[in-house]
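Rotation project, supervised by the postdoc (A.L.). Task for the rotation student: set up a whole-complex structure prediction and record inputs and outputs verbatim in this book. Inputs entered:
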Amino acid sequence: MTTTRTDSSPAPAAGRRSWLREHSELGVCVMLLALGALVLTDALTMDVDITQRGPVGPKTVPIVVGIGLLVIAALLAVDVLRGGRGEAEGGEDVDLSEPADWRTVLLLVGIFLGAAALIEPAGFPVAGAVLFWGAAFALGSRRVDRDPLIAAVLSLITYVVFDKLLGVPLPGGPLMGVL
Amino acid sequence: MDAFNSLMGGFGTALTPLNLLWAALGVLLGTAIGVLPGIGPAMAVALLLPVTYGLDPVAAFIMFAGIYYGAMFGGSTTSILLNTPGESAAVVAAMEGNPMAKAGRGSQALAAAAIGHFAGGMIGTILLVILAPTVADLAVDIGAPDYFAIMVLAFIAVTSVLGSSRIRGLASLLIGLTIGLVGLDQMTGQQRLTFGSLQLADGIDVVIVAVGLFAIGEALWVAAHLRRGGAEPIPVGRPWLGRDDVKRTWKSWLRGPLIGFPFGAIPAGGAEIPTFLSYVTEKRLSKNKDEWGKGAIEGVAGPESAASASAAGTLVSMLTLGLPTTAVAAVMLAAFQQYGIQPGPLLFDREPELVWGLIASLFVGMVLLLALNLPLAPVWAKLLRIPRPYLYAGIMFFAAVGAYAVGGEVIDLVTLLVIGLIGFGMRRYGLPILPAVIGVILGPNAEQQLRRALQISDGSVTGLVNTPFAVTVYAVIVLLLAWPLLKLLVSRRRPRADA
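Outputs recorded:
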């Protein structure tokens, strides 16, 4: 929230940059193009040595999907250049008038990966509590007295309910070994 | 009355104390999660999938039925008390319901919605009991080409009926189909898009895809644009209706299902269109036209009843043809696949206990819903006050539980996050989520049917269109595809209103 955008570049570069920002949806086209190329390459380099039953082998559908991706990437690019825009999704808690808050998103991604790394060595109750508290913190909750407590209780109850009552195994970790 | 006997057998299954408990738990959980702002029925069902992993299929689907109806009802509570519908089907409930709540008639609005759900669900489920076995009987002879045609219809319907841009819908579908390709080819065991990785050879679990796109994608998207200081919910007491209100609404409750049920059964976007049609119909028939827009109770009763009946209609095509017409049905289909059960015409023969237990528990669930939700409404209303950081942290937490529970592997959590980021990007650039989910779930199946059909016909393309059923379905597809052209021809005669 505190970062301010400093734009010291000369006018033409700024113009190009704002054009790119306005047409950032072209990035979606590039992704679709790349995905299409990937699917096609994978399909075409497939060596089908297994005796094939029927005329349509494992290659056909990937080739169709790959070509479809390339075609749709091109069509989308044309649409974007002609002024078409994908409408960003609204929602109850979504305020689209503000620019995207990337810091929160990156923080959430980091916390999620951290919790995923913790789940095996530390067990689910610890990793789950870290995930909940961390995510709540990233989203702006600063109640240091309440947040960790809620996180710990939620994680522990979830562990007990799933692992013991519903028969869905979750790793308890060393902490549960002690208790 | 074969269906009647089967249904009675179903009640025998559904009314055992343990199954009754699962149904009640499903209704409570479904409503609680559905009431939470920002969580629509599809995300609610996806998040609650892991709860059923440890159960046997019958219990799991009985619980699911409760979750489905509970989540739909919960969504309308949010609309009425908060005026910020989380999903398109609940938009209509907010149009008259929220003004009612503002005018101090929130209790009546909630009661009209709850009884509307009950009436719509009851009528819809009765129609389901009558129609589903017939449809299944008619469809029991359909073969590979027919299945393939149905799935193509599903693909075309989700990309061109819903959403504002066909190109973006198709892009989303293709992303889904690509994810569905990952893994071993079902017919030859050929590795596809696995890049030599053992993890990817198993394919990407549809539950992880659904939870990633619906839950993680949504949480990240909201995190990027979190509204500071959102709307305050309107406090509400115990729902009740006066004699005058009942007199005004009973016809609306009965009319709603007539509109809702058929629309639920066809791939036309679920409850969105019928709720709106019901709203328009009620407005036209209303004697108190001046009240509309300021809180006309018929405008809550009719659409809510239509929405509930459309959920029952959705189940007809889902159970008898394996054709999901809404996001919730798509997630439920994924749940069926988890148990290795393939919905379709044979389901009624192969798994009668499951199907009729499920249908009977829909009735049970509806009664429980009415009995629980009228007294509990003030409690549900309190859930609307949940601080947003806790809400979205909780969504990520339970999404992680669900993905980890699929196979107990950390790598699944990474996959979940990657798919969540794809969901984030799709929301940013207006790619609809549903086509991708349908693509992942139906894609592999469609490919198998296509190849089977062509094997039978020895490679001749005519093998895809050699049954009257398939030809009919393709005719419908052509109509769907031609619709914008027809509309263009019509609108060209009139001056264009918008650019």
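Student's summary: Residues 159 and 169 of chain B are 4 Å apart (CA to CA).
Supervisor addendum: Chain B has one domain: 2-492.
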